[in-house]
Write a structure and sequence with these properties.
Layout: H1 8-12, E1 14-16, H2 26-53, H3 60-77, H4 80-87, E2 93-94, H5 96-129, H6 134-137, H7 140-166, E3 174-175, H8 182-187, H9 194-227, H10 232-260, H11 269-293, H12 296-312
Parallel strand pairs: 1-3
Antiparallel strand pairs: 1-2
Helix pairs in contact: 2-3, 2-4, 2-11, 2-12, 3-5, 3-11, 5-7, 5-9, 5-10, 7-9, 9-10, 10-11
Length: 313
Amino acid sequence: MSMDGPNTSSEEGFILVGFSDWPHLELVFFVFISIFYSLILFGNTLIIILSRLDRRLHTPMYFFLAHLSFLDLCLTTSTVPQLLVNLSRLDRTISFGRCVAQLFIVLSLGGVECVLLVAMAVDRYAAVCRPLHYTTVMHPFLCRALVAFSWVGGFLNSLIQTGLVIARPLCGHQLNHFFCEMPVLLKLACEDTGGTEANLFVARAIMLVCPAVLILGSYAPIVRAVLNMKSSAGLKKAIGTCASHLTVVSLFYGSAISTYLQPVHRYSEREGKFLALFYTIITPMFNPLIYTLRNKDVKGALWKVLERSTDSV
């Protein structure tokens, strides 16, 4: 690490190393990431459009799913275009202001998704365990309140974490990553970050561990209710929607916990880049597939839209 003195990073910005350690793979990464990004844009935009156009999808589950798709679009767009520019070797630099903004946006959207997945778990609990009271429990006002709480909670948590990170003077200009990731920035701190890291760990634990515990706790009564179901159609539908949600939760929390709930001195920048690819590209790409492949309502809505477009032609 270069020790040029404090505040040099804030004056001159950073160089994002990206995947330049593997120059022979940069073209391969560029092609595949471009394809994946296109699929993310198409799949998640399609979910949002279908949830608006088809009345059968005007339910709490699809209301939350549309917000999840919007989050995935924003999270991916906050990092991938810059990664593609980096891979094309046109520009590997980022100013300090843009870096802070990117850090804030990524942490905000990640935090919002953490809480939103809890809201989706509440929806699944109400649908499976309280089916006769589902429309009463999952009232539109409650759904909007849960989404609003997700956004407010995510942005407040990010404000705290971003403030703690930039409060430390940074030495050096090279970030061994393809975007401004918090553990990588902490490694550039000019002084001991023990106290800052402890505060950040508390903030991360609140945003990652607490929602994960709530989600797992909600599935205990869901499992009991599913095991007691006598209707094969109801059982199949409950397993399908719950399995989709659990798959998304596992993909998101698995990569996020691996990245953020470890001490900075143990953080591997090389492994961290590939983990970041997972939660910024792979998970957003698979989320629409996970929900649509298992879901007759979404596939039905898609065919209905396609039929309308064909008839109009």
